[in-house]
Specification:
Strand 6 and strand 7 (132-135) form a beta hairpin. 42% of the residues lie in helices and 22% in strands. By secondary structure, the chain is an alpha/beta fold. The chain contains eight helices and twelve strands. The protein binds calcium ion (CA). Calcium ion is lined by residues 8-9, 51, 53-54. Calcium ion binds next to loops.
Length: 219
Amino acid sequence: MRVLLVEDDIALANGMLLALRAQGFTVNHVALGQQALNTIRSQDCDAVVLDLGLPDIDGLDVLKITRQKNSRLPVLVLTARDGVDDRIRGLDIGADDYLVKPFAMPELFARLRVIERRLGTASSHLINLHGVTLDSTGHQAFFNDEALTLSRREYMVLKMLMESAGRIKTREQLEASLYAWGEEVASNALEVHISNLRKKLPKDFIKTIRGVGYSVSPP
Ligand code: CA
């Protein structure tokens, strides 16, 4: 899932970036409301974590404008401890969820996983398919109950495929979720991840849909 983080506190934003990336989220960070609006308008992000106290445009206005243009983009707002009115207004304008600062990172992960599950087909943090188990809370995968050693991107590919079991994930969808905006990507990078994954998974677990993408069979 591609997350747009809008936060002007650079130290906090850097900490969140590292933590979220370690959890397998693809994160793009901007510090200003106008940049957030530009990014939302021009790029394809799956969810937004939006600080309400921004230096240029009020976060609530960013949310309002976003809702006018894209009614379904999930937005989680970050508010100050005393910002009860902001919280209520945020939810009224259409925020999906909120967190009060200071918050614990695991709580942010949990809220984002709820959004992620709502966007995908998975309804639980555990998915079992053909002997392979994906635990999106523990950020791990198992084959016949043995933990698999996966790189961050291998895990992300496997997670996307298993959460959409029975549907094809196109190359473009997978690449877009794996890499941050503007990141330099080798043309065969996805094939390399898939090939490495296949060495660790049962035969034919990941199916190639020639010229389109990849899929995993439903149970
Ligand atoms: Ca702020």
